[in-house]
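In this section we walk through a basic example: taking a raw amino acid sequence and producing a predicted 3D structure, encoded as C-alpha cells. The instruction is simple. Fold the sequence below.
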Amino acid sequence: MTKPVEIDIRDITVTPVFKHLELENVPQSEAQGRKVMEMHEVVEVRIGGSKNYSPVFPAAGFFRREGLDTITYAERWPEQYAAFKQGDTQQAHGTPLQMLRDHGVTPEQLSLCRALKIYSVEGLHALEGPNLKSLGMHQNALKEAARNFLADRNQGKFAIDRVAELEAEIAALRAQGVPTVEATPAEIDQALQAADDAYAALSDSEIKDKIEGLTGNRPRGNPSRATLVSSLTELEAA
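The resulting C-alpha cell sequence is shown next.
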C-alpha cells in the first residue's frame, strides 16, 4: 500500500464542516422594523466523542495570528473549504472508519462512531478520556481494533494482492465524505443502544458459548449481561 499521507495527530479528532447558515442581521432588523435574514459561510467544528459540543464560527472569522497575518478558519482548513466552495463532499482526514469491518467492528459500532463524530481510524485511535468513554462498553474493543489496523498497515502486513483492493476501497469511502447534519443527542443515545443490543438475539448462555469458543474457557460465576457483551465484543475485535 502507498505510504499514508502525514497527518497532524494533534488535530485528527477534529473535523471541520463548512456550510451556509441563515442568520438574522439584528441592526438591520431593528432599523427596518422587520426580521432581516442573511446567509453566511460558517464552519461547524466537530470534536470526536463529544456529544453536545460543536462550536460554529464564521468561515472568514479570526482563527489565529501568524506574525502580522490573520489566519481565518477557511485558511485553517483550506482543503475542506475548497471542497465546500466547489460543491464537493467534505472529507475527514485519515483512513475511513469503515476499514475496521475486517477487524471485527460491527455495523452498529460504526454507526455509533459516526453519531459521535468519529470519522477515521486515526481519530478513533487518538481518542482519550471522556471522549473515549462516550463509546460506552465499546470503547476498549473499538480502540483496540483501530490500534491493530494501524499496526498491521505500518508493518506492511496486508497481503500484496490486497493492496490495490484496499486502496480502491479507501478512495471510494473517502468520496462519500462526512455527513452534513450532526446526530442529535437522542440519535446518539439510539446508536449507543443499537450497538449495545448487537447481541440482543443471544441469551447469556449463548454469549458464554461464543466466549468459550474463542478462548477455550467458559466464563465462571454469574457475570452481568453488560460484562458478557463487553467481553465478547473485545474478543471478536481482537
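Looking at the output, two observations stand out. The longest strand covers residues 14-24. The mean pLDDT is 84. In the next section we compare this with other chains.
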